[in-house]
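Format is chain and fold; as here:
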Amino acid sequence: MTTTGLLVIRRFEDWANRNSIYFASFAAGVLISVSFLHIVPRAIGMTSQAPVFLLVGYLILYACNRFITAYVCDSPERARYGIGLVPLLGIGLHSFIDGMVYSVTFTVSIFTGTLAAVGMILHEFPEGIVTYVLLRKSGIGARRAFVWAFLAAAITTPLGMLVSYPLISRIDDIVLGNCLALSAGALIYVGASHLLPRVEAQPGRYSFITLLAGILVAVFIVLSAL
């Protein structure tokens, strides 16, 4: 599903580049809403330590952003790279943990795993699109952006499943809840502290509408996963 999103956006790349600010606001709406409405409540239901890991996830992405800004994007010609690299890290972490969730739910039962998978797969298509568009907006070439988005948003999910499957008997609710909270903190940082300020700095006529559209998509994803 993620790869399909990448192929579609490559086909309509000129249009995507012209409207990249709207993709950023849409992504912010999805990431923030899914985190607060679904991932955080689910993590808190699994472990009382979730708020701590939520904060840790947020601070890790903040530290990554500061590192990228100070050492990777420290020259004018590379200053825009952070626009795409920080979301790449956050989405990659979240997609890896998605793979762990697949493993856990399918060990409960095939039916439970299928229901969870259907709900989660719905967000994979826009995830690939958003990752690619943000990388292109940061000035990264089309081919490299496609490969990086594929590695971060597509490959990480089956990788998370393969890595966690041999250890599935040891992954209890506390460990999984902490991982979910960690990824939620990362996604909240990407949406609220990284993308939204850039949207506000380059306001588009319809940016608020696309933000609301992202929120509505997130609500749909959450309701589908119930």
About this structure: The chain has ten helices and no strands. The chain has one domain: 2-225. Residues 2-225 form one domain. The chain has a mean pLDDT of 80.
